[in-house]
């Protein structure tokens, strides 16, 4: 095998491991192919700070972009995820965008989330969910609504985000109540109001309509819901009206 092929095999092996062995294989892979984005993605996991991690994500993203080349981007924009060779770069770019968001660098995060959707409109990575949150944090409500309308997938994320957006823009309107009535098919409200306590850790996997999906949603969006004065009381009263 070529060095690039050997590096890829080491990365595949690293994906199956945890701890020091995982990082050792990533380093060995980068010796064989210094431009492999997944090597940097893995090493960022053991970084001592988010600032160190973001530097590794950026390095992997930029090297991956150079490796693919400008012509490749022009030719394949719109269906990137369907091409296996793009995925390490796409993972690094998503990690970089999310790390920027976590550091409060909203404009940079939004730019990269948007670029991910341009490269892969099918959004196999779920970048739209993080982008929606970033839009709200940045008070870009028009863009947030356009994003919801474009990806109207009927998930808990979309259903409750329609309620959230209406509340942020227009407060406790009849439309907000109507949207909430349509949304009350999960335990999201119990977690927002504090009736149920959120677990310390985010569930890694979840199925549609599951308790884990509700937990994931609230953990990501709770800080925005809490910006609305009187939200817990309104949610509680609205739920009582539905049950009565």
From TrEMBL:
TPR repeats: from-to residues: 90-123
Keywords: TPR repeat
Pfam families to which the protein is assigned, alphabetical: TPR_19 (PF14559)
The keyword Plastid is annotated on this UniProt entry: no
The keyword DNA damage appears for this protein: no
InterPro entries linked: TPR-like_helical_dom_sf, TPR_rpt
Family annotation (PROSITE patterns): TPR (PS50005), TPR_REGION (PS50293)
Coiled-coil residue spans: none
Superkingdom assignment: Bacteria
Stored Gene3D superfamilies: Tetratricopeptide repeat domain
Name recorded for this polypeptide: Tetratricopeptide TPR_2 repeat protein
């Amino acid at each position: 095998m070529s060095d690039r092929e050997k590096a890829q095999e080491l990365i595949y092996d690293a994906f199956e491991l945890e701890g020091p062995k995982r990082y050792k294989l990533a380093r060995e892979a980068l010796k064989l192919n210094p431009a492999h984005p997944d090597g940097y993605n893995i090493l960022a996991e053991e970084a001592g700070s988010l600032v160190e991690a973001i530097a590794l994500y950026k390095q992997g993203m930029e090297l991956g972009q150079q490796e693919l080349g400008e012509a490749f981007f022009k030719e394949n924009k719109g269906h990137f995820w369907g091409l296996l060779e793009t995925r390490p770069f796409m993972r690094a770019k998503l990690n970089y965008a999310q790390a920027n968001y976590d550091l409060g660098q909203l404009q940079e995060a939004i730019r990269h989330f948007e670029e991910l959707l341009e490269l892969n409109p099918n959004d196999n990575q779920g970048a739209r969910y993080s982008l929606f949150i970033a839009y709200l944090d940045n008070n870009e409500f028009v863009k947030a609504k356009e994003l919801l309308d474009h990806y109207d997938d009927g998930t808990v994320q979309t259903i409750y985000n329609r309620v959230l957006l209406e509340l942020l823009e227009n407060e406790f309107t009849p439309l907000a109540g109507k949207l909430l009535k349509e949304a009350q098919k999960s335990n999201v409200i119990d977690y927002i109001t504090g009736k149920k306590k959120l677990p310390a850790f985010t569930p890694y996997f979840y199925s549609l309509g599951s308790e884990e999906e509700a937990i994931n949603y609230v953990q990501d969006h709770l800080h925005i819901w809490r910006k609305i004065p009187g939200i817990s009381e309104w949610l509680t009263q609205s739920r009582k009206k539905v049950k009565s």
